[in-house]
Amino acid sequence: MNDAVAPGQGPTALNSTQTAPKEVQISMGQDNANAREKSNCRSWLLLGLLVPVVAAIVTVVWYYEGTWYGLAALYLGLMVLLVIKPGWRWFYIAAVTGPRDTVALIAYIRVLLFIKRLERKNLNVGDVFEATVARQPDKLAIVSESQKWTFRQLNEHANRVANVFHSHGYKKGDVVGLLLENRAEFVGTWLGLSKIGVITPLINTNLRGASLQHSIKVGNCTALIYGVSYRSAVMDIAKDLPAHVALYQFNDETTAAVPTEGLAQGLAQQLNTLLESAPKDKVAAGASRADHQDKLVYIYTSGTTGLPKAAVITHSRYFFIAAGIHYTLGFRDNDVFYTPLPLYHTAGGTMTMGQALLFGSTVVIRKKFSASGYFADCARFHCTVGQYIGEMARYVLATPDAPHDRQHQVRMVFGNGLRPQIWKQFVERFKIAKVGEFYGATEGNANIINNDNTVGAIGFVSRILPQVYPISIIRADLHTGEPIRNEKGLCELCAPHEPGVFIGKIVKGNPSREFLGYVDTKASSKKVVYDVFSKGDKAFISGDLLVTDEYGYLYFKDRTGDTFRWKGENVSTSEVEAVLSNLVNYKDTIVYGVFIPQTEGRAGMAAIYDPTREVDVSKLGTALASAVPSYARPQFLRFLRRIDLTGTFKLRKVELQQQGYNPATIEDELFYYSQDNGCYVPLTQPIYDQIQRAELRF
């Protein structure tokens, strides 16, 4: 990850004069739900009583005073009724959020028209890309530290790939996996395969052994293209793969000597040699072709909670993702995009790379993310839009000040995972005019975007016309994510500020509302909830806890299962992580719940990546006491010597949670919060044994 671990290299905030952030509201707050329900019932009752009264008055005025006075009375009567239900506040909110909703509605209509036009013509991604090439063949499409490819070059490589695999008998519906680093050929390869209707699973380059083998098998691959850098990983599992899986090795131009393992034994073919002799101007006549609704690629989940699952991305879905963010955030065709994210995930490979393939923009890529190199690259390549994800913004913020922090042309950054606690610091330090924070799952249909720079919001749902884009937050068990149903067996909407599970209504045939799920149909079925607001309807259930404010802005709270209960209160791990990370100079921080014998709920435990041990534990306890409620304060601390991140910079907490806090099995330093001493003290084996015998008070 290069210097992405920069947070562990500077002085800690606890050893400086930094003041602790104000106390955050950790409680999930469902206490007022019943009160709101009663108030709602009273409003409807009053409305029911007033309707006949107003109707009678209007009738009398109309009868005795004539039409004009009758119309005036009708107008005033309607105003009175609307003040009661939905109420005067609704009109205020409608006025405030109207401009936001109008901009989003126009963008949404443009997206649907864009996709419908392509659908009518049955165009696929390759077709739209070739039209882009025809318009601007010599414009730069993809730029990196070592490559500068024009649209013509990218298309020629794609045609060569298509012709090689067509000549080898591959056709529409076949599956060829791709394991390759961030480089122009990555895009050209899956694009070329798509031109003959072949589906390409984009495999995470960090996978090894059983996980890599699983990804190849679950994608039903009939062949695998791998970069020479991953030769050893592939050869380790080659003999365990199904016999029909053909292997193709791609060697980049920087390889001095081509490794022959696999090639010499006949296990793999040299793809470079095959490409050199293949036609580059067009795809061979007679090759199969993909339709608009056909599968394009498989994109794997990060695997934070188990083995990766292959999510289905069709050509139509690719259009919707790339065009959706393009129109909603106001991207320009002449923008230069910067993404250091892996191209095998949706964020970098679809959202950003789609701007080049569909709209003709230039995309700057990087093999590996560098925190100190982020804005240096943006300045060097004259980028106008930057992309972030996960913890990336925090890593960049933790780097030392540099001249390129503000000497760049970036007018906007977009991504997901920019925490509210560092949002303002980030935009002020790096002079960013606009942040486009979005939320969405690769496999899901509940996708939202913050289009008006509201700090901390991940998107919004219209308070005026929520039916236009049917996404909702429903009441659910905060620990299991299971929907809470009423006496009719249906789900219920959450009130403003009430946390619940985020869902998206499934509508067949609507590109924004379809749920394509995973290759594994059993895994797909677990993400669908039925009988939501009426019998027979269904929705994609995200598994994420969100809240909305009265203006319709949505805020991320936690993952279901990550929230735990302690001292009778619900604790949001993501909120505690954000506060704690700020206190330890933006170091990687993971918070989770662990069991203590003879106590109710789970106690908080925080794992902090601090290999050089810079954090002052004695000061940390004091800082936490003023930053979070006592029930949200971690009872245990673990200082990690190494850390494991996913390809999208997500922290893996399942393994840490399973390991618990036993010093006999954990080599890292452990501390616990001593009620007697009022601070964190080392967790020794005798202390651990006392905890297991319930001899210590928590």
Short description:
This protein has 18 helices and 28 strands. The protein is an alpha/beta fold and 698 residues long. Helix 2 crosses helix 9.
Summarize the helices and strands and which ones pair or pack.
Elements: H1 33-65, H2 67-120, H3 125-135, E1 140-143, E2 148-150, H4 151-167, E3 176-179, H5 184-194, E4 200-202, H6 209-218, E5 223-227, H7 231-237, E6 246-250, E7 268-270, H8 271-276, E8 295-300, E9 310-314, H9 315-329, E10 336-339, H10 346-359, E11 362-365, H11 374-380, E12 385-389, H12 392-397, E13 412-416, H13 420-430, E14 434-439, E15 448-449, E16 459-460, E17 471-474, E18 500-505, H14 521-525, E19 528-530, E20 538-548, E21 553-559, E22 564-566, E23 569-571, H15 573-583, E24 589-594, E25 603-609, H16 617-627, E26 636-640, H17 654-659, E27 669-674, E28 679-682, H18 685-692
Parallel strand pairs: 1-11, 3-5, 4-8, 5-6, 6-7, 10-11, 10-12, 12-13, 13-14, 25-26
Antiparallel strand pairs: 1-2, 8-9, 14-15, 16-21, 17-18, 18-20, 19-20, 20-21, 22-23, 24-25, 26-27, 27-28
InterPro entries: AMP-bd_C_sf (IPR045851), AMP-binding_CS (IPR020845), AMP-dep_synth/lig_dom (IPR000873), ANL_N_sf (IPR042099)
Catalytic activity: tetracosanoate + ATP + CoA = tetracosanoyl-CoA + AMP + diphosphate; a very long-chain fatty acid + ATP + CoA = a very long-chain fatty acyl-CoA + AMP + diphosphate
Domain AMP-dependent synthetase/ligase: 129-488
Describe the structure.
With 698 residues, this protein is of the alpha/beta class. Helices cover 35% and strands 19% of the residues. It has 18 helices and 28 strands. The protein has an eight-stranded mixed β-sheet with strand order 2-1-11-10-12-13-14-15. Strands 16, 17, 18, 19, 20 and 21 form a six-stranded antiparallel β-sheet that branches. The longest helix has 54 residues, at 67-120. The chain is globular, with a radius of gyration of 28 Å. The two termini are 38 Å apart. The model is unreliable at 1-33 (pLDDT under 50).
